[in-house]
Design a protein that fits this description.
By secondary structure, the chain is α/β, with parallel strands linked by helices. It contains 14 helices and 15 strands. Its EC number is 1.1.1.103.
């Protein structure tokens, strides 16, 4: 899937109106001048084997070189992850171990993806507290100690039922009711505190549901991933949200581009350390309508479960106007583009890879 994503990102930079000198300027802003010579940043990605980590590493390696982007996690990587670039064991709850990694590898940027997602976190709150809160304490303190630029993603889950839902502005009441959301608000606040108190270069984007062809990983918005896998495999899907549940979403290519552009943005352009970013909002029934153009006999049942309560407390439409104003964020993919890419990607890399050319759903591509 990501081979296409990286290629598209590079092609679009030059084919969609972004001039060469702007691309060069962005890249130059990311170069570190150390001891009289210029070098690209050395980047450590924690939680690297999740939905975003592996693909983020591939993108950043195209920009800064394979050896300058270190993927890390606590689980055994597959062969593709090992062959694509440096991979190391890193436990975010082991502060001394993290110190050793930063010193040994001369890390400049830390991208912190380690987290238990919303639905999974509710099933194991003590573990979510350790990973999502204690882990953030460690990486924030590490970044302060070694003067790293640190990125910690946040989420639409950082808002709650008392927040305005349509639209949800950048600064408003939050008060989430999941441990995932609580931990993300905590990360936002402690990061901002370290910025104001210690000058830490802390950067955080609140992502909506991120859609990629990788199998779903336990988030409330993951129905929008699972439906492609199930529908293309069987022609059927049972959705755990109501058909009219509107949530903000974003295709992974837009997500990763937003992250990279934000990390490269000059500090004086940033009026905040935490920004909303999004691309679209849709409901399950709107997604089904678009997907039915490719799978005409698609049959979807709706059986809401406990994830419906989570979704009902989250934003319906995300206001990311401040990101667009301050550092020129622009999304590229709308719902129709997203469905087109996802159908082709899941079909080619998952359905056909398992079943050969045979599939039980009748598809129009």
């Amino acid at each position: 899937m990501f081979r296409k994503c990286v290629t598209t990102l590079v092609q679009n930079a030059f084919c969609s109106g972004t001039s060469t000198h702007i691309i060069q300027e962005i890249c130059q802003r990311s170069i570190h001048n150390t001891a009289g010579f210029v070098r690209p940043p050395k980047i450590l990605i924690t939680g690297g084997l999740g939905q975003l980590g592996t693909e983020c590493a591939k993108l950043l390696r195209t920009q800064y070189g394979s050896e300058n982007v270190i993927l890390s996690d606590i689980i055994k990587p597959n062969q593709a992850a090992v062959e694509s670039g440096p991979y190391i064991f890193a436990d975010i709850l082991d502060f001394k171990g993290l110190q050793k990694i930063v010193v040994d590898h001369r890390v400049d940027w830390l991208i912190h993806f380690s987290a238990l997602l919303s639905a999974v976190g509710e099933q194991n709150v003590p573990l979510a507290v350790r990973v999502n809160i204690e882990g953030v304490h460690n990486v924030i303190e590490l970044a302060k100690q070694y003067k790293l630029r640190i990125f910690v993603p946040s989420t639409i889950g950082a808002f709650g039922p008392d927040s305005p839902r349509n639209p949800t502005p950048n600064v408003t009441i939050q008060r989430p009711r999941t441990i995932y959301g609580v931990s993300k608000v905590h990360a936002e606040l402690i990061g901002e505190y370290y910025y104001h108190k210690f000058g830490l270069d802390f950067r955080c984007l609140r992502f909506p549901g991120v859609i990629s062809s990788d199998p779903p990983g336990g988030g409330t918005t993951d129905y929008a991933v699972a439906i492609f896998h199930e529908a293309l495999r069987t022609g059927k899907y049972t959705c755990y949200l109501k058909p009219n549940t509107r949530l903000p979403m974003m295709y992974i290519e837009d997500c990763l581009r937003a992250l990279h552009e934000f990390m490269c943005a000059p500090d004086d352009k940033l009026k905040r350390r935490v920004y909303n970013v999004t691309a679209m909002s849709f409901t399950p029934e709107e997604l089904v309508e678009c997907l039915s153009k490719y799978i005409p006999n698609l049959h979807v049942n709706y059986k809401p479960d406990n994830r419906q309560l989570i979704a009902d407390s989250w934003p319906q439409v995300f206001d990311d106007s401040e990101a667009r104003r301050d550092w020129n964020w622009q999304h590229k993919y709308d719902l129709n583009n997203l469905v087109d890419f996802m159908v082709k990607d899941v079909q080619e890399n998952y359905i056909n890879a398992v079943n050969g050319s045979d599939t039980r759903a009748t598809i129009k591509i």
